[in-house]
Structure formats: structure tokens, C-alpha cells
Design goal:
The protein has 523 residues and is an alpha+beta fold. The protein has helices at 15-27, 58-65, 70-76, 110-114, 119-124, 133-137, 140-145, 170-184, 304-315, 360-374, 382-409, 417-422, 430-439, 458-467, 484-504, 508-517, and strands at residues 7-11, 37-42, 80-82, 84-88, 101-105, 165-167, 188-191, 194-199, 205-210, 217-219, 222-225, 242-244, 253-260, 272-277, 280-286, 290-297, 326-329, 333-335, 339-340, 343-345, 351-352. The structure holds flavin-adenine dinucleotide.
Length: 523
């Protein structure tokens, strides 16, 4: 039986475009005769955004799947290891000159492995003497405190002692993926501007027109819009309705800057630092030769000049006069449909939620994997897959927005109108309000997360809630929590395991230098 969908055209060669091309070409076997042909067209004139430097552990699986050597990736893309995020000053400081800080690590908490929720037992401990939640239920926060890596050089590519992701140079990553797609996965590349998207009478796309000297018309059966914020297909061609979330997430501007290390021996953190400010927050990501630092803020509450000054103050003693500060306007929201007719949007074209939890590349990856896995080869199958994809991605976007908002709306900071407004119930999505209300008297459990595909799971919520000092009063449910002895034994085991890891793990810079010199063994 013949197939209708045999050729996919991707428009755009940023992180979204090349990651999608790699996943699709590998899964749909572009190099085989009965596989799906993939072409990517990228404008030679419009640069990629090139700012997404933080990732999630899923990227390890994806890189492995598409046949990339972890050693090559680390060498080529200025990569360092990331074990989570540290949130500084998101709550009132407990003591003068002592910032409030907690981690959202990437490793799963032991209670997930044993199906035994440790959170209520931590809540039952004496508030004044207990260790912070992140240091009680897992080891990774303590490794981050010491700047220690999640693995050793003797471990093979992609394997881990602790769950990890990467910090990377976004421009180098797109280039690296491009070469891999062209050299190894059979992706056809065209450098040209798409000038028009042409539809048939049923509003399906037949082809796009370009300014290329010979490839003026690019035909395909299915089209992926990775054209960035302009949304060449989803916005400019189909004008799909937009769900704004600017009333939930207030930050509308980012100011990004690359800060070189003063010398090549400078320690590199193994986590992203997100430090809350008067009207936003500053990210700090350590790559091999420089830090990527930026202020995400709301221009309603602070002037550009004051925001820049706060960023300079954060960078500290280093001379910033030679540095280039790049201003980026942010528009939070997403399209009400991502898949329409024979096209789908992935990346900035689909939507944007601020990078507080570095969730965008994860969402591109998840979207491309879903399309690749379910790609309909026959036109008659399209409507079903379109429906599933749109439901799935909408759920992922809604849940992402809620999780980002959580960081703001449970804060006890009241030092500026920005923080006061962030706690206004009118700005908090209803599902999050209901969850928070319930969690005031019972800690979250796996049953709060009925959808296996939610981007942020039980562990993530527990880390943020109890890192921020959220109060759960167990009084009405205390009869349920009688396994104190078992919990204490686990806390003790975790503590011992943490001490062992601290003894064994190398510091981040030492591991990265060894990988550059010797490489990991292949899996
Ligand atoms: C300040 C900031 C920090 C971020 N940090 C993170 C992070 O830490 N982690 C994370 O996961 N995400 C992060 N993100 C989000 C995300 O990674 C970026 O938004 C991502 O760079 C967007 O990639 P993209 O491929 O969708 O778009 P782009 O990089 O903008 O690429 C668009 C592509 O489309 C092409 N194009 C456009 N028009 C045409 C045309 N007419 N014809 C042909 N080609 C065309 C361009 O040439 C380009 O190749 C961050 C975003 C911002 C704004």
C-alpha cells in the first residue's frame, strides 16, 4: 500500500530546527529507501536566537539515540555538566547577610524509587533543627554545594552516578547538530530565505517559495515551522490564535551577557544559579571558558537602566565595560493549536515560557519525539495524530506555566510591587490554586500528577514547595504517617551515600578537562 507523507520540510535551523531534524531523520530512517526524507531550509540572513544554554537530562538520551558521541559533544559545544538549579533569594532571607537558597536537583528522590513518600516525615521533623528538604531526601544538593561532578572519567558515555544534563553554547550546539544531521543522518540542507508559503484550496501547504538561485520551489508532504518568534507558518500563514500568559508571568525583557572567566582555573558550578531580584531574576550558567549571565525582568516594575545596573552589580568586581549586553523582548504564551493541516510548529514559533527552569529545549525534544514516533504516513491518519499532539502539547505548556508561576506565587517576599502582584490570586492559574490549597493540609503525592507526561513531576514540586518554605499542616492527616522508623533509616542511608559521593566525585573543571583530553569510553 502506498504512503502519502514521504517528505518533511523543516523551516529554520535554530536549536528547535536541528534537534527536530535529527530526531525525525533518525526515527524515520531518512537514509533508507522506505524512510521519510527530511529537508531543512534556513535563512542565511536571519541569525538564530542562540541563548538557550541550560538543558534537562532527556537530552542525554536524545544525543545517544541520534548517534552523537558525548565526548565530541562536550569538546565541540563548550559543554559542562548540570545537576539542577539553585534558587537564591526567592524567599525572605532568614538572617541578615545570609541569602535564602535551595536546590531543585535533577536526580529522583529515593521515595520515588521505593514508592514511599518521604516528604511528610521530613515535615514532621523539628523545624529548627532539621536539615533543609533538598539535603535530606537526596545527595545531589550536597554535590552542588561542593561543585562536584555527577560522574567520574572512568564511567562510560551518558552513564551517571547522579542524574545530569548539560550547560552548552547554543550557537555551537546548533552548528554541531547541523553537521551531524548532514554527515550522518541523511538530512538535506538548503540555505535560503522562505519567501512564501503556498496553500491548496483545502488550505494544506503544497510548497514554499524561496530566494535560492536554483531551489526556488520546495515541495514536501509535511512542514515543520521552526522559524522562531516570527512563526512563518503558524502565525503568518495560518494566523492560529494566541494564548497570552503575560498576566501570569510578568517578565517581558531579558538582558544577556557573556562573562569570560578571569583565569582558566576558575571553578565551574555544576548547577544553574537563579537569583531573584527586585523585579525579576538573574541566571548564571558556567560553560568551559565563560559564564552566560542574564537578567529576566518586567519593564513595568523596573527601568532598563536599573535592571542593567543590577546585572552589573551581580557580576561583581569583574570589569564589564568591554562586555556586550544583548536586550531581548519576551512575549509569554503559546498558540492554541500547534499542529494544523499538514504542518506543526516546534520551538519559539510554538510558544515561549521564560527560561527559569530551562524547559524549552526539553519541550522541543518531546514534541519532535512525539511527531517522529506517531508520524502519519497516510493522510487519513492525520486528524487523529493532530488531535493527540495538540492536546498533549497544550497540557505540557499549561503545566509548565503553572510550575514557573509556583516559584513566584508562594514567595514570602513583599519588598516590591512586583512580588506583591505575583501573589495576587488573579494571576495564579486555577489548577495551581487548587493544588496549593490541598497541599496546605496534605503533602503532594503521585496522585496529584495523573498525567505521566507532565513536564514537572512530584519530586520537582516537592523541591520547590519545601525549598521555599511552603507550610503543610499535617494535623488532620498525621494518623497516616506511622513509618517514622523506616523514613529515618532512609534519611540516614541518604546521608551516608552523600558523604561517600562527596569523597569520590571530581570537581567539575577537573572532569571537563579530562573529558577534553582523554574522552569517556563509548557505551
Ligand atoms: C533569554 C532566554 C534564555 C533562554 N534560556 C534557555 C535555557 O536555558 N534552556 C532552554 O531550554 N531554553 C532556553 N530559552 C528558550 C529557547 O532555547 C530559545 O528560545 C531557542 O533559542 C529558540 O530556538 P528556535 O530554534 O525556536 O528559534 P531561533 O533560534 O530563533 O531559530 C529560528 C530559525 O529560523 C530561521 N528563519 C526565520 N525566518 C526564516 C525564513 N523566512 N526562511 C528560512 N529560515 C528562516 C532562522 O534563520 C533561524 O535559523 C531561552 C530563551 C531566552 C529568550
Amino acid at each position: 500500500m502506498g504512503t502519502d507523507n514521504n517528505h518533511i520540510l523543516i523551516i529554520g535551523g535554530g536549536t528547535a530546527g536541528w534537534l527536530s531534524a535529527a530526531i525525525l531523520a533518525k526515527t524515520l530512517n531518512s537514509k533508507l529507501k522506505n524512510g521519510v526524507k527530511i529537508t531543512l531550509v534556513e535563512s542565511p540572513d536571519i541569525p538564530i536566537l542562540g541563548v538557550g544554554e541550560g538543558t534537562w537530562p532527556n537530552l542525554r538520551g536524545t544525543l545517544h539515540k541520534i548517534g552523537i558521541s558525548e565526548t565530541d559533544f562536550i569538546r565541540e559545544c563548550d559543554v559542562t555538566f548540570k545537576q539542577g538549579a539553585e534558587f537564591v533569594n526567592w524567599s525572605k532571607t532568614p538572617e541578615p547577610n545570609k541569602p535564602h537558597s535551595y536546590y531543585h536537583p535533577l536526580s529522583t528522590v529515593s521515595h520515588s524509587s521505593y514508592d514511599f513518600n518521604l516528604a511528610p516525615y521530613w515535615l514532621q521533623q523539628d523545624k529548627d533543627t532539621r536539615l533543609p528538604y533538598d539535603r535530606t531526601v537526596a545527595s545531589q544538593a550536597r554535590l552542588c554545594d561542593h561543585g562536584l561532578a555527577p560522574k567520574q572519567i572512568v564511567m562510560s558515555e551518558y552513564s551517571a552516578a547522579q542524574e545530569y544534563a548539560y550547560h552548552l553554547n547554543a550557537c555551537k550546539f546548533a552548528e554541531f547538530l547541523k553537521q551531524h544531521c548532514i554527515d550522518h543522518l541523511g538530512v538535506n540542507f538548503i540555505s535560503a530565505n522562505v519567501t512564501e508559503v503556498v496553500l491548496d484550496s483545502d488550505e494544506f501547504i503544497t510548497h514554499v517559495e524561496t530566494d535560492h538561485i536554483s531551489e526556488k520551489q520546495l515541495n514536501a508532504d509535511f512542514f515543520i515551522d521552526c522559524s522562531g518568534a516570527k512563526g512563518l507558518i503558524i502565525k503568518q500563514t495560518y494566523n492560529i490564535a494566541w494564548q497570552s500568559i503575560n498576566d501570569v508571568i510578568f517578565n517581558d525583557t531579558a538582558l544577556a551577557v557573556q562573562v569570560p572567566y578571569p583565569d582558566k582555573t576558575q571553578a565551574i558550578k555544576t548547577h544553574t544559579i537563579a537569583t531573584a531580584q527586585e523585579a525579576g531574576w538573574i541566571w548564571d550558567i558556567g560553560l568551559q571558558d565563560r559564564r552566560g549571565v542574564g537578567h529576566v525582568y518586567s519593564s513595568k516594575y523596573i527601568s532598563d537602566q536599573a535592571a542593567k545596573q543590577q546585572l552589573i552589580d551581580y557580576i561583581g568586581e569583574q570589569d564589564t565595560s568591554e562586555l556586550t549586553f544583548r536586550k531581548i523582548k519576551l512575549n509569554h504564551g503559546y498558540h492554541k493549536k500547534f499542529w494544523h493541516k499538514n504542518s506543526v510548529a516546534i520551538g519559539m514559533s510554538a510558544g515561549f515560557v521564560e527560561p527559569l527552569e530551562a524547559s524549552a529545549i526539553f519541550l522541543f525534544d518531546a514534541a519532535a519525539n512525539m511527531i517522529a514516533t506517531q508520524f502519519p504516513r497516510k493522510k487519513s491518519e492525520m486528524a487523529y495524530v493532530e488531535k493527540k499532539f495538540n492536546e498533549h502539547l497544550t497540557m505540557r505548556m499549561e503545566r509548565t506555566v503553572e510550575f514557573i508561576k509556583l516559584h513566584y506565587c508562594i514567595s514570602d517576599r513583599r519588598d516590591s510591587q512586583y512580588w506583591i502582584d505575583n501573589c495576587d490570586p488573579k494571576s495564579i492559574p486555577e489548577n495551581l490554586q487548587q493544588r496549593l490549597n490541598f497541599w496546605r493540609s496534605q503533602p503532594p503525592t503521585k496522585y496529584d500528577f495523573e498525567n505521566a507526561w507532565e513536564p514537572f513531576n512530584l519530586d520537582s514540586y516537592l523541591y520547590i514547595l519545601y525549598g521555599m518554605g511552603f507550610e503543610t499542616d499535617l494535623e488532620t492527616v498525621s494518623a497516616k504517617y506511622t513509618q517514622t522508623e523506616r523514613a529515618n533509616k532512609l534519611f540516614d542511608d541518604i546521608n551516608k551515600a552523600s558523604e561517600l559521593l562527596i569523597e569520590k566525585m571530581p570537581v567539575q573543571r577537573a572532569l571537563v578537562e579530562k573529558v577534553i583530553q582523554y574522552g569517556f569510553s563509548k557505551l
